[in-house]
Amino acid sequence: MLEIIDAAGWPIWLLIAASVICLALILERLLSLRQARIAPARLAEHVAELALRRTPSPEALRKLSDNSALGRVLAEVFLQRDKPESYRIAAIESTGRDMAMRLNRYLPALGTIAVVAPLLGLFGTVVGMIEIFASFTPEGGDPAQLARGISVALYNTAFGIIIAIPALVFHRLFRTRVDGYLHRMERDASALDRLLDDLADASREPRQ
After folding, report:
1. Which of 32, 83, 104, 107 supports an S-S bond with 87, CB 3.0-4.6 Å?
2. Are the C-beta atoms of residues 128 and 151 closer than 8 Å to each other?
């Protein structure tokens, strides 16, 4: 490995730094965007059943808010249930935007690496080409310097592509996953809000 780094020349260190950052971002997002942390299965159904039985206590709402991102949105629906509709919707949407920002954290950086890595590889290619041309003199060419220039150009081009491909793939994967989570949050929050409205209307109806 050290021989490859030496053959690739000093521009390879820029790509190594980009690869380390890329790997760290991918691992962080893989851990942070797990379903259990964002939108646990059957959480919305459990909250709906809880709403049908009784009004959750402040302690129950705190636990729901700390449960996950979806739990935070659903807890906000409960907290704003007695507010006017326009205020309630604005508060829920504000919480949803906050969750969206948290879910999308670091994704722009990952997308930037996917774009920049090939450019860094191209930069290394240019450096290698400069060394190739520098190997030629009026007296003739230096085969050793010519070979090094070729290796610098090829290694940097290859490393740039190798880094860009997984960065782009995981960026698209995470964006798709986040969009799915946000859609589920919006759907479940709307369903819970309608349920609470129906329960409130039923409680206000005069008994026969």
Report:
1. 83
2. yes
Q: CA-CA distance, 33 to 149, in Å (whole number)?
A: 43
DSSP 206: P
Q: Are the C-beta atoms of 51 and 169 separated by less than 8 Å?
A: no
- Rounded CA-CA distance 180/185 in Å is 9
**SS3 readout for 18-57:** HHHHHHHHHHHHHHHCCHHHHCCCCHHHHHHHHHHHCCCC
Spatial contact of 200 and 81, defined as CB atoms under 8 Å apart = yes
pLDDT in tens, 150-193: 888 889 999 999 999 999 999 999 999 999 999 999 999 999 98
Note the pLDDT tens digit of each residue in 39-90. Answer: 998 898 888 888 887 778 888 889 989 989 999 999 999 888 888 888 889 9
Q: What is the DSSP string of 98-149?
A: HHHHHHTTTHHHHHHHHHHHHHHHHHHHHHHHHHHHHTEETTEE-HHHHHHH
pTM to 2 decimals? Answer: 0.83
- Look-up of token digits 């860009």: 164
Q: Look up residue 207 and give its DSSP letter.
A: P
